[in-house]
Amino acid sequence: MSTTTSPEVLSFEEALERFDPALGLEVHVELNTATKMFCGCPTEFGAEPNTQVCPVCLGLPGAMPVVNEKAVESAIRIGLALNCRIAPWCRFARKNYFYPDMPKNFQTSQYDEPIAFDGWTEVEIDDGQGGLERHRIEIERAHMEEDTGKSLHVGGATGRIHGADHSLVDYNRAGIPLIEIVTKPIMGTREKAPLVAKAYVAHLRELLLGLGVSDVRMEQGSLRCDVNLSLSPAGAGTLGTRTETKNVNSLRSVERAVRYEIGRQAAILSAGGSIVQETRHWHEDTGVTTSGREKSDAEDYRYFPEPDLVPVAPAAEWVEELRGALPEPPRVHRARLQEAWGFSDLEMRDTVGAGALLLVEQTVAAGASPQSARKWWLSDMARRANEQGVELDALGVTPADVARVQALVDEGRINDKLARQVFDGVLAGEGTPDEVVTARGLEVVSDDGALSAAVDTAIAAHPEVADKIRDGKVAAAGALIGAVMKEMRGQADAGRVRELILEKLG
User: Fold this and answer.
1) What number of other Cβ atoms are within 10 A of residue 208's Cβ?
2) Domain range spanning residue 179?
3) H/E element holding 120?
4) 436 lies in the same domain as 452
5) Cα angle at 206 between 362 and 28, to 5 degrees?
6) Measured distance CA(24)–CA(225) in Å, rounded
7) What is the pLDDT of residue 383?
8) GO molecular-function annotation terms (predicted)?
9) Which residues pair with 170 in a beta bridge?
10) Could you tell me if residue 1 is inside a domain?
């Protein structure tokens, strides 16, 4: 690293006055196949450590791998959806490097012969004027490989190896099928670079979910993004030395990591320093990156063809059959949903921008109206996710939960205020919405006897308001309704309370 003294981070605005950013995004997608890439071990997430392993994925001598056909099919479908060319013949290679959680000391991957290459896709971001602007992202390649195991560093404060007492290794993940999707350099985005990066990963997630090839749960690591970023002098049109921020695991963090690296690199370059080509770690809690290791070039990995696997040669007829069975593209899907739901352009843009489109769609499928589903996900759920620093789909409330809560509101059993308490209970692990309503006693009181008594109390406590209502100022009833709701802890049927007030006051 440069020893030049400089501010740690330049402001985003000042950085862009001096430099142009270039992005490169590498997205690793865990496929949802039933078994691993080269063996028959199951791929269930969350199993007991080292219970889903065999001689093949542990790299034991004499064990022979066999390619997972379903993983090859998924790779082809991903390539086609990204407008890639599909290789008529490709093969695997050994990528040699040491990691303690990689049992073979090499990763079976693809090097110069990927299964899909030379593609493109488009993303849309807010243009700042109430509309959308479209950015074309060129795809360098989408290739097949296997995942590594997972190291668990115990005893430290950060979960990283520095400061830990000891480390454990879980090889359950070793051999899980991965597709790595690599973009070509994305240039010319300027101040929109963080938004374009976030929009691209969100777009990929939507596309992959539509294909049904992965659950793309970023919080579980089934979709991970490595953010490459470099700066060059403004207007130069060249590429600078890049850094690679590894395993960024949320849409929010992708945007923040790009923004931070722009400021950090700009500070170093402005002070006369130079950027080291290295991997960096993203820290979600502090919003900064720290140095990892100097980045190896391809020759350092000593790639050579995998001798234990035959080449993959998908028949042209099979590729065309898979192309014909692709689902509708995300943009077409969104347009169809917008028309069906009756959303305005602004409502749909905000839904997509919040990462809530799939959640709203699933909530509607579970029985809620589109507007009520959108209301909950973009207001109450979005606030809670923001407070917890997680994506909406990692919040712990499911679309089925939201649909059921709305059904309870529609049935008159709870109101919106009580519904928020129901969500509190669901998030606290107290059970289903119905169980929370029962356990917390949240159901709306519609018994006329209890309501009538509460109305009498409110009228007696506010005689001046009662007089206004008797004089024909019906709008004043709101104050008495509020008093009754307060006394009954929000559990009164507001409509019935209003009827009783007007009946009693003529």
Assistant:
1) 25
2) 12-319
3) strand 116-126
4) no
5) 130
6) 10
7) 94
8) ATP binding; glutaminyl-tRNA synthase (glutamine-hydrolyzing) activity; transferase activity
9) 150
10) no
